[in-house]
Design a protein that fits this description.
mainly alpha
């Protein structure tokens, strides 16, 4: 939260919305990759749809600081037309 606030203060309102969207997309991709290829990958995907109250589960975590940094870099590349999407 503090990192996103600092980026928003430095980038300005319009660019901070681009940073937030890029961060959300990268965070979603990272989470899906973590579920699919993390420890017990396919088993973790099956556990998402299975409801076992007896089984003790380890939480799946994603380091979101990496997603914020990559989102800021991606949004900056878009802003200065280094990375042209459309």
């Amino acid at each position: 939260m503090k990192l996103m606030a600092a980026l928003g203060a430095m980038a300005g309102f319009v660019h901070s919305m681009t940073v937030a969207m890029a961060t959300a997309l990268i965070g979603a991709v990272m989470a899906l990759l973590r579920i699919a290829f993390g420890k017990n990958g396919i088993v973790a995907i099956k556990r998402l749809f299975k409801r076992d109250k007896e089984e003790k589960r380890e939480p799946i975590t994603v380091p979101y600081g990496i997603a914020i940094a990559l989102g800021a870099i991606w949004a900056t590349l878009i802003r200065f037309n280094i990375l042209k999407i459309f």
